[in-house]
Specification:
- With 178 residues, this protein is mainly β.
- The chain is globular and about 45 Å long.
- It is 3% helix and 35% strand.
Length: 178
């Protein structure tokens, strides 16, 4: 197990092995973690359509949390222990990928994957998701995705998992479905 560091003030191309070489984008950290790892995220604003392999303005881009990985926010970017010195309200996961609300991310955070296990998310402000889409089917898995529910957070995990969410604030999210 390892700690992967993310700081939106970092230079592009960091490998995430320390604060000095932190990933600039949270998506890059999520793409490289494995069971037992932790992601430490510095104060700043992170958007799901940013990072390697992501397309700017892609409304379906989401932060897909990884089973058995803890994600912690509120760091200033100097800590050596998992006790953030900053403010989790200042570690922002934002779906505002476009100036027009109708074009914000459908889901800011998604609990997904086919591997059962625990998911931890601690110390984030999750904001500006707009689930104003429709129910669709992912034909690679035949699992329906409801894009009209869960603007801030949704689940696409058919296996049982345990979610521990602490020190998180959901604000400014919307959905068109019931």
């Amino acid at each position: 197990a390892k700690v992967v560091y993310v700081d939106d003030n970092a230079s592009a191309g960091g490998d995430g092995t320390s604060w000095a070489t932190a990933h600039k984008h949270l998506q890059d950290a999520l793409a490289g973690v494995a069971s037992g790892d932790e992601i430490w995220v510095a104060e700043g604003t992170y958007k799901p359509d940013q990072g390697a392999g992501k397309t700017a303005g892609d409304r379906t881009a989401t932060f897909s949390l990884v089973s058995r990985v803890g994600m912690y926010g509120g760091f200033r970017g100097t800590e050596t222990t998992r006790t953030p010195l900053g403010d989790g309200n200042q570690t922002i996961l934002s779906g505002e990928i476009n100036a027009e609300k109708e074009l914000w991310s459908l889901h800011v955070v998604t609990l997904s994957g086919w591997d059962p296990g625990s998911i931890v998310i601690d110390g984030f402000r999750i904001t500006k998701g707009n689930a104003n889409g429709e129910l669709t089917t992912n034909y690679s898995t035949d699992y329906p995705i409801n894009h009209s529910r869960g603007g801030g957070c949704t689940t696409r995990n058919p296996n049982p998992f345990t979610l521990t969410m602490t020190n998180c604030v959901f604000t400014g999210n919307s959905a068109s479905g019931m």
